[in-house]
């Protein structure tokens, strides 16, 4: 189990939480999507760098994702593929939460990359999302002026849950003032679609091989958080996108925890399959 000391304000807050003097912030349900594409004999992942002005994970390279909007659980969302009940079992969640997580995964991926995991029918896909009309809808989704259900209905589309695979479950440690209960998905870049620099919360985007991203982080060129490092390490073990999507995956819950070591507060990150449920 890896760990590092918490100093300054983080250490003070950790000590207060451990002593029961203050309560941890509630963890908000969130979804993250590891978007994959083929790159010669290998795989690339889509990463965006969060703007330094952001209150959470500022400057970190992350996968597309974000908090669940209450409207993501709307039963009117046109749905094709594995049911909410199937996703609930995969993630150990109730059906309503699972529905919201899957919808948030699709919505956030479109908002943050321009890629839409949906199509006119259960076995077709949107081929291009780069026009001005698509951009207007994307901005309306970001502003919460438009719900996912309304967006899909307006365009006559169905959400393709069969394009997603469950991958992992990370819960932000108690010491953080802003916390998320995040389920990780993986998905392949749909044929014909392409990502674009959509701005907003990100100031840079890039496709990278997992190993390249890990090497750059080790060299101090980019900043990666623990869940991203672990996910990239796992993806790097696969030869191609199809192998990633075909892998039999048991979702493990990882929840870093705080402990006092020789008078100093430390944050410990679970490794391997020793995450907690």
UniProtKB/TrEMBL annotation:
Using the record's annotation, list all stretches that form the Nudix hydrolase domain: 26-230
Listed A to Z, the keywords are: Hydrolase, Magnesium, Manganese, Metal-binding
Q: What is the protein's given name?
A: 8-oxo-dGTP pyrophosphatase MutT (NUDIX family)
Q: Which domain of life is it from?
A: Bacteria
Q: Which cofactor does it need?
A: Mn(2+); Mg(2+)
Single annotated GO MF: metal ion binding
The keyword Nucleotide-binding is annotated on this UniProt entry: no
> What InterPro entries does this protein map onto?
NUDIX_hydrolase-like_dom_sf, NUDIX_hydrolase_dom, NUDT19
